[in-house]
């Protein structure tokens, strides 16, 4: 049998997700490339607190910071997915990458909360969404961590 005959639905799903992550990475890079234009469009809407040049600078700087966090998330997701595709599911490195993802998304939530309260109100929606996503990632990370503990206990019992 050739490798193509052994391809499962999960293998196809992993490949499609990897392609999606690559497209998202490239899109994120493109958006960072036109960051000042995007901020120029956003600045036209009213602000809860900051105005003028200060607001533009805060939005632009925070946007680049959020872009870098997005790239880090995409890279960690890609690495995590690669290991899972290789059959390395319940390993300590995956728990570490899930921890990184939790911190990265949590930072996005905090930055978005700051931006929503001071410079661009709709960012509060991102803050709420990322807060929920952070908790979901933490639950998955904890499940992976417990699975590794159980796996180690079983290995030592035999």
TrEMBL record:
InterPro entries for the chain: DUF2975
Keyword Metal-binding: no
UniProt keyword terms in alphabetical order: Membrane, Transmembrane, Transmembrane helix
Tree of life domain: Bacteria
This protein's record includes keyword Transmembrane: yes
Pfam families the UniProt entry points to: DUF2975 (PF11188)
Chain segments annotated as transmembrane: 21-38, 58-78, 98-117, 123-140
Stated name of the protein: DUF2975 domain-containing protein
Record organism: Streptococcus varani
